[in-house]
Design a protein that fits this description.
Elements: H1 2-12, H2 17-30, H3 33-43, H4 57-65, H5 69-79, H6 82-89, H7 101-110, H8 116-129, H9 132-143, H10 152-163, H11 167-173, H12 185-189, E1 204-205, E2 207-208, E3 222-227, E4 231-238, E5 241-246, E6 270-280, E7 283-284, H13 287-295, H14 301-306, E8 309-319, E9 322-323, H15 329-342, E10 349-351, H16 360-367, H17 370-373, E11 377-382, E12 390-391, E13 396-400, E14 404-415, E15 424-433, E16 436-443, H18 449-461, E17 463-467, E18 470-473, E19 478-483, E20 485-488, E21 496-499, E22 502-506, H19 518-523
Parallel strand pairs: 1-12, 2-13, 8-10
Antiparallel strand pairs: 3-11, 4-5, 4-6, 6-7, 6-8, 8-9, 11-13, 14-15, 14-18, 14-19, 15-16, 17-18, 19-22, 20-21
Helix pairs in contact: 1-2, 1-9, 2-10, 4-5, 5-6, 6-9
Amino acid sequence: MRNLANLCYQLDQTNKTNEKIALAKTFFETAPDDDKCWFLALVFDKRPKRPFSISFLKEWAAEFAQIESWLFEECYHTVGDLAETIALLLPEPDEEIEKSASEWIKLIISLEKMSELERKQAIQYAWSSLSKTSRFLFNKLLTGGLRIGISQQLAVRALAEATQTDINQIVHQLTGNWSPFNVSFQELINTSLKADISKPYPFCLAYPVENQIENLGDAKNWAIEWKWDGIRGQIIFRNRQLFIWSRGEELITEKFPELHLFTPCLPENTVLDGEILCFRNGKPLSFQSLQTRITRKNLTKKMIAEMPAVFMAYDVLEYKGEDIRNMPYSQRRKILENIALRMQSVPSWKLSESYIFENWNQVYDLRSQTRQQGAEGFMIKLLNSPYHQGRKKGGWWKWKLEPYSIDAILLYAQKGHGRRAGLYTDFTFGVWNGDEIVTFAKAYSGLTDEEFEEVNRFIRQNTLEQFGPVRTVKPELVFEIGFEGIAPSTRHKSGVAVRFPRILRWRKDKLPSQADTLETLKNLLNI
């Protein structure tokens, strides 16, 4: 555990790519296999789920540290992170008990079936046995808030260098359904996992368009497709079995029974890439509809009828058992179109339209129809590009519309986490509804460090009420809030929910009375 905890700490202390690779490489060369396996699992988001509500942790930590609850709360509000607060407040152990990361994680998983007293005893035993650094990692795993300070791409590079293994092979091995509890480190870097018929391929990701679209060169070298706001997914059809994987490497086969209708028509041993959407009357429904389906444990017939799912196919990665990712996009597209002919009778199948234009002016003309199509913008794909893994510049680009925007009033503030733990950076915003201001969004990013400092001075001097870590402030500051989508919502007082809200700018030129209204916000629903 000490090796893994120290690595996580060191990675968090640097932002230099070469240093991160060197640290991870050294770890892969020297650490026990169990710890190496768990490090990869954490990097690839295969961490244990939180076993129980953490509401008691504050009480247990305050008792263990022998401080009053109010003092613990004050420390927590200052630090801004529960796992870090506990790690800092608790006394160093008399003697550190060295166990592997796997052993401590097994303890965390076992907490789910324990009584409250047994959980308390087990957690306090861990706190009394671990150093501050190891305790911080344990707490992060316990609370589910762990972020590893290295990207998947850099971790794979380090592993490839340390083991002298082909990087493409490693990426494929680490994709799909595996766990350190049932796979050894040696199996992860060898080819033994290829027998898993459900295994997806690493996703090809796009970069946002930079500068003018004309800088990409001749428009005739590019294919234009709509960019949809759904769940990126792969359909795996091997040995007459169908599997559905999300981009987050979650197996979601049972969430979309409509897509099981593919099995009689799809060619054997085929892997498709596309977007899962809720689609009705020829148009996609909001992402909120899709999210509702994903979060429900049991799908009812009514829900499926009201929010039917489709798979919008836009690429084929494996065809009749052959990996065709290195084929040019134009050739893969022809194969996909042949598959589409076999799928015409399947209502949950849709083929993403692909356009080739003579010039960029024609692309701009089509772009003006984006919102009518219910899309976010365009995917722009080089006709001779392979299906690369991860994010690489040059082959695939995404060109999204400018976000919706609303001028809103700051109402509530809460302290952030990480390097901004001492600052109020988590804001809630509202718009006018008659003489009342109703909240509609929270946003955490978009201001400079200097602006955050200035807003914080205002918050401290203009707090009206305080509820735990949340402050109600005088409704005097106006900000332009951008967001990608909007949908009706019964869960919010405003009656709407927005997608990916963020601060675009501080409107110092506007008075609170000049902020937008709920009517203006709701009018965006019809655009």
